[in-house]
Specification:
The protein is α/β, with parallel strands linked by helices and 355 residues long. Helix content is 27%, strand content 21%. Helix 7 links the parallel strand 7 and strand 8.
């Protein structure tokens, strides 16, 4: 497979500032309409993705992870729309582009590996045909050449070329997921989004898929956005992590910093719920309550009703985002501008960071 240019000449101009991030999302708000009601699914999310970097996005179901990803590539359902914010790829704002214009970027610049490969693949078409289709449709390659490249991609992800003639039901779950990864790589994108790419796979196959994504990221110079509810997956594969809660970013920063010294009480509780084989046995912690109804988000901090370190200001004022000295960004009233960044000690006596 040919090596990629840092910025593909076929679609986009070179950046005036080569030090600028590959992807910069600012103040993204994506809302759903349900009859006369609005669901504030993503309500002010900002983050950056550098070239070659892997960013993990984690949080409870319904926190806005997948909606954020679908916003990036313009694959939102009909009742959803971006109401505010920018999504700048190479400095070009995709959020301001029409559906027709977005087709130039989808698959060619940003591709996605969906969860549940059996549902994402066409059951009546051979695997090699499905991998070749975006090559034909997006790059204008003739079918013979596209099938040849599709065979190379299947081999790249560990599927023998001859198996490309199989139908999805004739492959194992792990092989189908590898085929989805090959399809995502078909147009040599700069960014690959993995939306729960190991869901419903057994532990050994999960490890193989994650190892494959990591190898391809380094081999092809990809940038990766990995969406998962499994923090251990992020710890193994990502450079940075973004913790989302109720449509907002609670905490974001280098994996090592966030996982060893979590600042936000929500992050602390999430980490405390993970079993640790290197310490004595103990009951796992839980987070009482449930996330707020995003049709009627509460004033102030959205985690306030469940937070063991809640203060009165948390119930009334939206917490500011503070960038700490170690590169961690946290949205919590315990960390005003100029704070020393030491983790909040929860009433139980721990922070959830060291167990």
């Amino acid at each position: 497979m040919s090596s990629r240019a840092v910025i593909p000449e076929r679609t986009l101009p070179r950046l005036a500032d080569p030090a600028a991030p590959l992807l910069e999302v600012t103040g993204l708000r994506t809302h759903f309409k349900l009859g006369h009601e609005t669901v504030y699914a993503v309500d002010g999310v900002s983050f950056r993705l550098e070239r070659g970097e892997a960013l993990g996005i984690a949080g409870e179901s319904g926190c806005g992870k997948t909606t954020t990803a679908l916003s990036l590539i313009g694959l939102l359902p009909p009742n959803a729309r971006i109401v505010e914010g920018s999504i700048k790829l190479y400095g070009i704002d995709l959020a301001a582009r029409s559906e027709t214009a977005l087709r130039r970027y989808r698959w060619r610049e940003i591709a996605i590996v969906f969860q549940g490969a059996m549902n994402a693949l066409n059951p009546v078409r051979r695997i090699v045909e499905q991998v070749a289709e975006p090559i034909v449709q997006r790059l204008g390659t003739d079918e013979r050449e596209a099938h040849d490249k599709a065979g190379e991609l299947l081999e790249l992800v560990g599927i023998p070329r001859a198996r490309g003639r199989a139908y999805p039901h004739q492959l194992s779950g792990g092989m189908r997921q590898r085929a989805m990864i090959a399809m995502a790589l078909a147009c040599d994108p700069a960014i690959v989004i993995g939306d729960e790419p190991t869901t419903a796979l057994d532990v050994m196959i999960q490890a193989q898929i994650l190892e494959l994504l990591e190898r391809l990221r380094k081999q092809l110079g990809l940038s990766l956005i990995l969406i998962t509810h499994d923090l251990s997956v992020i710890a193994e594969t990502c450079d940075r992590v973004m913790i989302m809660y109720a449509g907002l970013v609670a905490e974001e920063g280098p994996v090592a910093e966030v996982f060893t010294r979590p600042r936000h009480p929500y992050t602390q509780r999430l980490l405390a719920a993970i079993p640790n084989l290197h310490t004595e046995r103990r009951a796992l912690e839980t987070i009482p309550g449930s996330p707020p109804d995003l049709r009627y988000p509460p004033p102030g901090c959205r985690f306030a009703a469940r937070c063991p370190a809640v203060m009165e200001v948390c119930r009334t004022d939206v917490p500011p985002e503070t960038l700490l000295a170690d590169g961690v960004r946290v949205a919590c009233h315990h960390y005003p501008a100029g704070s020393d960044g030491r983790p909040v000690v929860l009433p139980s006596g721990g922070t959830g960071g060291s167990r």
